[in-house]
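Possible regression after last week's pipeline update?

I re-ran a chain I had predicted before the update to compare outputs. Posting the input and the new output here so someone can diff against the archived version. Not blocking, just want to make sure nothing changed silently.
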Amino acid sequence: QVQLVESGGGLVQAGGSLRLSCAASGSSFSINAMGWYRQAPGKQRELVAIITSGGTSNYADSVKGRFTISRNNAENTVYLEMNSLKFEDTAVYYCQVRTGRYSVVYWGHGTQVTVSS
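New output (post-update):
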């Protein structure tokens, strides 16, 4: 069973920065894509950024140029560097990984990011 441990959330003023981390453990298979999603109150969960094992990344339009996703394959860890944070970035951020041949999906428990205006 894959376990995901997220850290780095918190309260920050608009214009500030935060860095989220997510460490995966317990996988018997290779970890393929790793990503971050977020869910604001009353809204659906949405993709923020995703990165493949080869390092190709994609971002939601709303965070392009402000957020950077990266990963350390040796440590099975994915990071999300968030700069120029806006009030509308406030949400619970969830780590997601896909493992093995069939890209089985695992989710973290989420970490709260609150941006004060």
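Follow-up from reviewer: compared with the archived run. The chain has a mean pLDDT of 95. Marking as no regression found.
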